[in-house]
Amino acid sequence: MNDPALTASSHRRIRQSNEVAALRALHQFGRLSRAELARKLRLNRSSSGHIIASLTADGLVREAIEDSPEQPGYARVGRPGIMLELVPDAIFFLGVEIGVEHISTVEIDLGTNIVSTNVEPFDGPSISVEAAVDRAVNMALQSIPASKLERCEGFGVSTPAQMDKHGLVRLAPLLGWRNVHLAELVRNALPLRVPVLAENDANAFAIGATYGRSEVHSGVTLFLVMESGIGGGIIIDGSLFRGANGLAGEIGHLIISDAPGPRRNLEQLIGLENIMGEYRKTSTLDHPTFGNFLADVQDRLPSAVSIAEQWAKALAMGLVQACRIIDADQIVLGGSVAALYPLMAARVAAHIHATQESSFPVPSITVNDEGTVGSAFGAACMLHQRYLSLESQRFAGEAAELEEPEEDEG
Amino acid sequence: MNDPALTASSHRRIRQSNEVAALRALHQFGRLSRAELARKLRLNRSSSGHIIASLTADGLVREAIEDSPEQPGYARVGRPGIMLELVPDAIFFLGVEIGVEHISTVEIDLGTNIVSTNVEPFDGPSISVEAAVDRAVNMALQSIPASKLERCEGFGVSTPAQMDKHGLVRLAPLLGWRNVHLAELVRNALPLRVPVLAENDANAFAIGATYGRSEVHSGVTLFLVMESGIGGGIIIDGSLFRGANGLAGEIGHLIISDAPGPRRNLEQLIGLENIMGEYRKTSTLDHPTFGNFLADVQDRLPSAVSIAEQWAKALAMGLVQACRIIDADQIVLGGSVAALYPLMAARVAAHIHATQESSFPVPSITVNDEGTVGSAFGAACMLHQRYLSLESQRFAGEAAELEEPEEDEG
DNA sequence: GGTGTTTGTAGTTTAATGCAACATATTAAC
DNA sequence: GTTAATATGTTGCATTAAACTACAAACACC
C-alpha cells in the first residue's frame, strides 16, 4: 500500500545505499581508488574509506595486485591511489534459459564474467513445466561443488512466455504452459534459499546485452531477437521496460499490412520460417540452410536477394512503426537472422528513409552477436543487478519487517 | 559525467529527501497526522514531528483547522491526531501553452489547485518565437500582483514541438520553429529567476491528466489528444516517458495501411480534418460542425455512422499496434474528437478483438474531458512535481556545487 | 633533495534518525 | 462518573554515519 518512492531513509539505509553505490561503481568502472570512488559518489574521502573497509571485511572488495598495465596517457601528479576491485568469486549467480529446443545455463561471478556455460537439446513442448524446471535446475547446479553452493546469491530463469514481474506465467504458447507460477516452481526445486526471478526470454536477452557496460546508454534501446519467432525487449536508460503485462517490445505481433497478400504480422514476415519457406521455393539444394541463403544473398543471386529485399522492407516498416511509439534512438538486432542485416543495411536504411517523415530522427542500428547463452546470461544478470541494489538480500534484515498491516483512511 | 543513480546520500540529503517525501505524501493524501505520516514514510513518530516542524517553519505546512467533516466509517480509539495540510498559497506555479491558435495560461498553487486561467486567440504561424514567448509570459504574469511574484516557484511552457528534455526545440512544424532553445528564451523573458521547463503539448497534457491523483497508477497509460492533429503521451508508473527525443507516444504518425486507398497515417485517418472532410461530403448543412456530426452519429444517420465506423476501425488498429510495443493497460482519450468515442466504444472494442490475437490483454479505454487548459495545467504540474523532488531549488545550495570538472580515466 | 600534489587515515564534530518515556486526548467499559 | 485502554505528540538521550580537519605517506617535477 505504501509507495516505495515515498519511503524515507534511516541511518542504516544510508549506509546500505552507499555501500551498494560503491559496489555498482566498482562494477561499472572496474578499478577505482578510494579517492576516485569518493568523487564519483560525491562523498568525503574518509567516508569512502569507511565504506570500502566494511565491504572489504565482507570479502566483496579487495585491493588490486599491482599488475595494472600502467594506464597510458597523461601522468598523474601526487600520491597514486590504491586500486580497488570487486572480488569476482566472492559470490556467483546462475541463469538458465528454458527454450523450445534447448536449455542453456550460465554461471556468472560478481564481476559479471561468465564462469561456465552449458547447453543441452531439449524438447520443450513435450515436457511438463515441473520436469522442465527440474531439468534446468539440475543442469545449472551439476557443475557446482557443494562447498561453493552457499556462495550462490541468485537464480534467474528466462523462457519464451508472457509473465508478470513476479514470475507468474500467463501463457507460454510455444511450450504449452498456462497460468503456472514459474518463479515459485523454481524456488521450490532449488536446494538453496536464494532470490529467484523469472523473465521473458527476449527481455532477459536485452538485459544481458546492455547490463554491465561501463557506459549506461541513457536513451531508449529496442532489442530484437530474430529466430523463428521475433522477440523484443525495450531498455530505457539502462533498465528494462516490461510494460503493464511484461509484453512491451513484442514487436513480432505488429501488423505490417503494406506487404502484398493477406494481413500478416512482422514475425510472419521477417522470421526464419518465412525466409526459409521462400528460399526453399527457389533453392536448388535439397535441404537448404539459412547459411546457404546468406551465401546466396552475398553472391547476389537474384532470387535470394529478392527475398532479402522483402525482409529489409518489412523490417524497416516494423522499426519505423515502433520508433513512432517509443522513440528509440538505438536498435540492436540479435538472433541468427540478424546475420542477414549487415548484407542489407543500406536497403533497410533506404526503406526507413522512404517510410518515415523526414523530420523524424533515424535510430542507429547495430547487430549483437552473443552466443546462444545470451538469454540465460541476461537472467543471471538480473540477479546480479538485484544484488547490487537496495532490494538485495544482504539487507534482508531490514526488508523482512515490511508488509505490516496498515489501514487506509478515506 | 556522474550517474545520478550512483550519487550517495549524506546527512543533509536524508533530511531533504524526507522533507520532500513528507510534502509529497501530504499532496497525495491531502490530510495526514504526524503519526500517519510516520507510518507512510516508515519513520519514527518523533522524526516525523521534527520534519513537520521544519516544514511548518518554512510556511509550507500547517495544522488544519478542524472543519473536517468527521470522516465516516469506523470510529477510532485513542487520541486523535492533529491533521496537517499543505499551505496552498505558500507558493505558486505558472503554466502556459503556446498553441497554434491560442495561448492558455494557468496558475496553480501548492495543492495543484487551479487558481486562475486565461485563454486568448493567437496566430502562431505568423508570429516569431520571441514575440510568442513575450506574449505568453506577459499573459501569465499580468494578473499576478508584484508582491506575490516572489512566491512563484516555477514556470512551465508547453507547445506542439519536438524538443529535448532541456527545452531545446528541434522542430515545431505547426509554428514554423526550428532549433530554438525555448526554455532559454522563456528564462530570459521572465523578470524572475525561477525554474523553467518546456515540454511537448501532448506530453504536458498527459502529465496534467495523471498528476496529483491520489492513486498513482502503476502501469502504462497511453494518452491520446485528438484534435486536427493526434498527439500522444505515455505515462509509466505515474511519470512521463519522453523517449530518446521527446517523441514517445507520437502515435499520430503510425502508418495504418489496412485502410483503403493510399498509405495514410493514423492522424490522417482519425483526426478532425478527415472526419469533417468526409462529413462535409454528405452533410446537407452549409457549414457543418463536429457537433452536427456527433448528433448525426447519435441519430444513426447511415452516412455519419459509416464515417464513424471507419474512425473506430482506424483507432482500434492504432491502439492495438501501440499496445504491441508499449503494452499499455490503460488508454485515455482527450481532445474534442474524443467525444465521438463513447458513441463508438462497442465498435472500437469489437475491432480490437478482431485485430489482435486473443492471447493479448485488452487495455481499458476511458475519455478525459479536461478543458482547453489541460496542456498549460500539465506544464505547471511539471514544475510542481519538480519542486516536490530532490532537484527542487529549495536545495539549490547543495545542487549548485555540482558540475565540477572531473577527469575520466581510460 | 626540496617542493607541490594527491592519497589514505585518524580523531573530532555535526546532524538526523531511533528509542523510550511521558503527558494528553479520546473511546469503551463498568 | 470514574477508570481502563489506546493512540498521539513531545521531549531528552543514544546511536549512527557522514563531514570536517589535520597529518603522514607516496609520488612527480624541479
List the helices and strands and how they pair.
The structure is a homodimer of 410-residue chains.
Chain A: H1 11-29, H2 34-41, H3 45-57, E1 61-63, E2 84-86, E3 92-98, E4 102-109, E5 114-121, H4 129-141, H5 146-149, E6 152-159, E7 162-163, E8 168-172, E9 177-181, H6 182-189, E10 196-200, H7 201-210, E11 220-226, E12 230-236, E13 239-241, E14 255-256, E15 264-265, H8 266-270, H9 272-282, H10 290-298, H11 302-326, E16 330-334, H12 341-355, E17 364-367, H13 374-387, H14 396-399
Helix pairs in contact in A: 1-3, 2-3, 4-6, 7-13, 9-11, 10-11, 11-12
The structure holds a DNA duplex (30 and 30 nucleotides).
Task: Walk me through what this model shows.
The structure is a homodimer of 410-residue chains. With 410 residues, chain A is of the alpha/beta class. Chain A has 14 helices and 17 strands. In chain A, strand 3 and strand 4 form a beta hairpin. Chains A and B meet through helix 1, helix 2 and helix 11 of A and helix 1, helix 2 and helix 11 of B. The structure holds a DNA duplex (30 and 30 nucleotides).
